[in-house]
Amino acid sequence: MLKSLIRGKFHYFAIVGLLLITSFDSFAYTQNRVLKGPDGKPVKIEGSLVMIEPDIELSEVLVGGIREPRQEWSDKARELYPQAVDRILGTGKIERKPNLKVIGSIEPNSRIGQLVRLNVAVSRSILFYTASGNRLATKKDKQLDWSLGTGVQELREKTGADYALFTYIEDSYTSAGRAALRVVGFLLLGGGGAQVGVTTLVDLRTGQVVWFNFLAKQSGDLRDEKGANATAAVMLKGFPL
Predict the structure, then answer these.
(1) What is the distance in angstroms between the CA of the first residue and the CA of the last residue of the chain?
(2) C-alpha–C-alpha distance, residues 197 and 56, integer Å
(3) pLDDT of amino acid 200
(4) For residue range 210-220, what is the model confidence (pLDDT) as tens digits?
(5) pLDDT at residue 86 tops 80
(6) Nearest to 204 by CA among 96, 54, 38, 48
(7) Domain map of the chain by residue range?
(8) Which residue intervals of the chain are DSSP H helices?
(9) pTM for the structure as a whole
């Protein structure tokens, strides 16, 4: 199943996110990057957009600190988050194509499945090599200069869109027992819930990643509409409309 193949790679984002949110007093971190045009200014996208089904997993942090996936929560989040994105992007000028269902619908070894996994790998590289002290010699001034290659045109043919929006989110919530231990002081600030997400916008005509955002924070709740709206607003901060 495509989801299981992506999941192991996505844990990288969760680990990095947890390290980042425990490094800042605000317990929140975002990293937003936009491709710059020949004039040195951030690009503004024109054309049509398809949202690839978000890969979202919600889990509960149990007393022992183990994260146990909650399918019902995850299913609800996968329903609410796209709706929140639709509301935000619906106010822009970009044409929307029907969202593309991936999980359970696309074969892992198909060209589309391979592109989805390739985007995970590229997103990991962007996150790592644009961080302070990790800049590649070929990537100057932390500019967004990454590509999935021309193979993405197959995704364009399937969806009719000029751009594809990929999203991965992992969210966890502290159980009642875990929270009780934290209250009485057996646990310090660490070990509670956290929300980590990454989103990329890819030009399906060229394969170029034109926008990237990474989110890590210790608050948020994708299990209800209000929380989904709040998360979507942060995830889409800086979207190049």
Answers:
(1) 34
(2) 9
(3) 95
(4) 999 998 887 77
(5) yes
(6) 48
(7) 2-235
(8) 2-21, 71-89, 111-129, 153-159, 176-184, 225-235
(9) 0.80
